[in-house]
Amino acid sequence: MISQVDTRPARGGVGESTYRPDGIPKVDGTYTYSSDLYMDKMLFGVTLRCPHPKATIIKLDIGPAVAMTGVHAVLTAADIPGENLFGLETPDQPILVGDQVEYEGQAVALVAADDPEIARRAVEAIEVEYQVQTPLTDPEAAEETDSVFHRVRCRRGPQDARGAVVVEGYYEVGMQDQAPLGTESGLAVPDGEGGVDLHIATQWTHTDRDQIVAGLGVADEAVRVHHAGVGGAFGAREDVSLQIHLCLLALYTDRPVKMEYSRAESFVGHVHRHPALIWMRHEADPDGTLRRIEAKIILDGGAYRSTSDSVIGNAVYHAAGPYRCDSVAVDGIAVRTNNPPCGAMRGFGAVQACFGHEAQMDKLADALGMDRIDFRIKNAVRQGDPLATSGQIIETSAPVVDLLERVRAMPLPTDLTGEDPRHLPGGTGLTTSLAEVSRGVGYAIGIKNLCFSAGFDDYAEARVVITPFGVEVHTAAVEVGQGLGEVCAQIARTALGIEDVVVFYDDTSQIGSAGSTSASRQTQMTGGAVLEAARMVRELALHRGGGDELDSEGVWRKGRLVTTMEDLLAHGNLEYHTRFHHPPTDQPDENGLGNLHVDWGFAVHRAVVDVDAELGLFRVVQVDTVQDVGYMINPRSVVGQIEGGTVQGIGLATLEEIVVKNGIIQNPTFTDYLLPTFLDAPPINVEVVEEPSAFGPFGAKGVGEPPTVSSTAAVVSAIRDATGLELNRTPVRPEHVALPGSPI
Amino acid sequence: MEVIHPTDLDEALAALAAHPEAVLLAGGTDLMVEVNFDQIRPEKVILLRRLAELQDVSRQRIGAGVTFRRLESGDHQALAQLARTIGSPQIRAAGTLGGNIGTASPAGDALPFLAGLDAEIELSSKDGTRRVRWDRFFLGVKQTALRPGELITAVILPTDLPDCQEFAKIGQRSAMVISIASACVFRWRDGRTRVAMGSVGPTPIRARQAEEMMSAESNPGPAALQEFARLVSEEVRPISDHRGTADYRRHASGVLARRLLERCLAK
User: Is B245 an interface residue toward A (CB < 8 Å)?
Assistant: First the structure.
């Protein structure tokens, strides 16, 4: 068949706000999350956890649990066939505690039983005695006694540079939880040949697989990790939680085993955002030129290493913010304590740094008598500038000045909120009248590295196949709810000119790693891999079909269809598999300098907050934000990420903190770990700057983390503006405002 | 687990007499939390949802089975105000006044209202009915005068209702939050003033010195209002916990009481 119709671009390509295939099922409740998995004859796994932050196990008798009807397995450290260690970057944490407990909630034993209630009762029946020890919980004491995971030292430029105007500050950031709505859950299915298929809500199936096989003592091929429906992640699923436990139980019982954490268990079952202690000193010339930045940052890594080494590195390299300065000294210390382990969370060290540097920039502008935005613009990094910390020349787009100019130009709310109590501080509690409200405005801008850094070989695999039924995109990348799958489909549609694209989330045996869904990297990395594979498969099609254009009808030459799709695929599908690497980065030298990062994203926030200072209550009225996004492959998803990330930052500013006392979490429920409700989430006005990135598909940059980096700092700046208080700690609590000077 | 489904009050009281250890289930918004956290594993449960006798509302008598959803639009302003602060719409549709009283949490949102009005709790058993004033009913943290075999059937309010009633509650979030401190202020045209505080002691607290002082003020000025706030702050007995510090609760108690009184005076 020869057609005279011109080829046309496929609908649903890049730049369109197409609908995600998982969108409607997630809204109407038909989407299958990992917690919905079910198999006939499956068992339920439950974990015995130590209630003490530091203790030695002096007796562990599983006999009473083993004897219970309906119990199929009770496993302890002695039952682990491989190495009893796991860890995302360095294996240092026992899969099950042998004798020494290092944090509250550490896993001691596992039970699999016919139903969850029997399993819980069996866990209670295990007889365990602890010799309780005094936990180390003070991060400064940990540093002094060299209980340290990692120290990072950065020295750049002449160390004797000075400015006439100096400000100093001390800041604290509380421990935030990722609080994904889906708790940890999964289903492990033994294959009858000594192997296991694990279906799990995770962020990186291949590192899960690597840690599982080490614990099971089996070959890589024996374990296949499948990504199951993920109910949010935000970094909480990057570390192993129940993955190895599930596989141990499934192999021991030779039955499918399901586990699902309760919310309270989830709080001790995954790592959190590092709490931070930050000291900063900024010096400037009277004309506002930054001359010297000094900082010391202590992050509390908790009991095990997780990603603490990388997070403290990120905090150090972002400590100066997106500003020019040629004399910098930053010291970072990730300490080891008996507090809950901390690791990855959206922003990964940059959030803590931003809370400090933006407070300093406000203070310094005020001390100089300069407008806070003018001062930031004067010192903003431009493309071609060295980053103040590492000295790396920013060769990719860096529209920092543009972001600041644009956010300043966005309209402020003109009217005060009316008397509707829902729009006043205190909300439905009716605490506050309009007369008791003062309004503050705060700005903050942040910088976040995109993709993996510091010499890590960051890559993603993808396979693109043209079949008679449409295009298949294969990847091991995890869709955590951010919209990656649709982004991959849009890239394939545009690259191939074929509309019918389905994304397959392959297990670890079917394709190589896509890297973690973290570090804002998947659009650039897996998106980059899909684009590369799609372009190659298009070349194959054009070559085989003898033409210069491809669409769903087939191959065209000079506007005429020369090979139909049926003929093109007569001898089989066309496919291309690729491993996409981003440009290489270096490890830092002894002064912390070097080309450490491959790309950055920037975002600025302006927060308007109404404060009832007498009661210390506040309401975020409006947030305006401008973000550097490279290119929007799916504008709706970009805005969704910006809104969600901004609200997560508002949460850290006003509500969200895991309160830890003597190593024990005081508020492991959503009753007391308060997330913003709809009423607490203000209107968010979003603008973007689209300057193409150096290597992202169609110029796209990752957009997930930057909105979380600066929104916290902007909201707290606005509360300071409304109250005149220093407020050096986030989240701000009512007593910090109502009774300033009272102990934290 | 045995579940008993009485269809009227007599059946419920008979079941309760036969099984005084049974757990009562009305809205379940407190009970199911305890079950989900594995704090209790009830053997017998008596369901109260079908008891029409607990659903009546009049100006002086409010059935224990009335949900906060219904109370949101009731006669008593402060009761409606506090009802709107409780949980989410789903929780308000299930949770009942009687359940809030029976749980007797220090943070129970309805309790300051009852304390401020000197309400009586109506308790019924197979053997009859008695009324217990709030201060003899709430004995401590989650401790009440309820005897085995007794059911909370209603709240009895006085006939002399105040001319102004105001409620407010401090939580860190704009909605769906446990109170850090709450207050109910009542004022009559003749100046009589009552103030009851929640979440600042093991049971609701009446600030009686503050009441006495303010009841003597027919047209209180700023100094009197400030003294009123100071007395309220003195009379509460808060603790520090992960939701707030004792100092903040003490401070906020006085501020809330003063603001609510100002709202009454402005009317």
Answer: yes
